[in-house]
Amino acid sequence: MFAFIVRRLMGAVVMLVIVSMVTFGIFFQLPKLAGQTTDQLAASYVGKAPTAEAIADVKERLGLDDPLAVQYGRFVKGVFTGQDFSNGPSVEHCAAPCLGYSFRTNEPVLPTLLDRAPVTLSLAVGASLIWLVAGVSIGILSALRRGTVFDRMAMATALAGVSLPVYFTGLVSMAVFVYTFRLWPNGVAYSDFTENPGLWAWNLVLPWVTLAFLYAATYARLTRSQMLETLGEDYIRTARAKGLPERTVIGKHALRASLTPIVTIFGLDLGLLLGGAVLTEQTFSLPGLGSLSIHSILSGDLPMVMGVVLLATVFIVFASLIVDILYAVVDPRVRLG
After folding, report:
1. Torsion 202-204-208-211 (CA) sign
2. Which of 12, 41, 57, 69 has the fewest CB atoms inside 10 Å of its own CB, making it the most exposed?
3. What is the 3-state secondary structure (H, E, C) of 280-294?
4. CA 35 to CA 318: how far, in whole Å?
5. Residues 81-134 pLDDT 10s
6. So where are the chain's domains?
């Protein structure tokens, strides 16, 4: 197990390096390949009436005329040793790990990401717990009651949940519960957990349920199909023939064998959401990583976009590692060498 974890951690480091290189190339080399000059790129960070002197100053300050390898090396060096950034008459020092300074706000990228991360973390973890419990439970009941009214209604609801996008269900839920029934008279707004845990949870109930509705539908359908397949296996019939209680047959044998693909997609889904639940955050105006990435893309703030991408990669790689370890816990037939 230890050797497996070490190998996966080494692979994670290699993956982060590759993602950072590809992302850096897309943002800083692709515009040049499309015909954009460094003067044009620098002019977008000067203002509405850029002068030649201002453009030259921005080019020198951001190092836009340097070769791509030099720019990437400067970025990597800043991650490990920190970096100095010229901000007009003053020089700002970004301590390690430094992901650069925002082109728009002149603020360091990493503190901004860490400031937005609790919002996305709260949204993703709360919604994931709801959709995991609800989706798996409904899927199990539907499999055990195959062909009944409950099964048909549950799968019809799941089909609606998969088909309806988050921005639609989110706007409908706000129209009903915020503006009609006035359950949230001041609207949905994020509040710090440390200041008021009750208010924090109450303000996130609607985003949690809206986001969980989409994923719970997928998990219900997947759990149902996996349970139906597992219940037809020979070892399940053998367990029942031995006289084991139905609760033991379902909980200990059928469910554990059915959880492997669910664990896989749960880890990846959670990792993706931790990188930013873009649609949900935009719909409910939550100041998380998803909304930060949208605003950074629209404003052309390349260092901030790169920071979000790298942070999302860390979450996804870490979630993949946890999923691989949980395989051996959920299904004893899986062995990690």
Report:
1. positive
2. 69
3. HHHHHCCCCHHHHHH
4. 38
5. 988 877 666 778 888 889 888 877 888 899 999 999 999 999 999 999 999 999
6. 111-330
pLDDT of residue 7: 82
Whole-angstrom distance, CA of residue 134 vs CA of residue 335: 29
CATH tag, 111-330: 1.10.3720.10
What is the distance between the terminal CA atoms of the chain, rounded to a whole angstrom?
A: 6
Tokens found for residue 319: 């979630």
**Cα separation, 104 vs 52, whole angstroms:** 19
Tokens of 330: 């959920």
Give the Cα separation of 24 and 69 in Å (integer).
10
CA angle 147, 151, 152 (to 5 degrees): 85
1: pLDDT strictly greater than 80 = no
Q: How far is 220 from 262, CA to CA, in rounded Å?
A: 10
Amino acid at 249: V
Q: Does 177 have pLDDT greater than 90?
A: yes
Task: Determine the pLDDT at residue 319.
Answer: 86
Please determine, for residue 24, whether its predicted confidence score (pLDDT) is greater than 90. no
User: Locate tokens 């060096």: which residue?
Assistant: 77
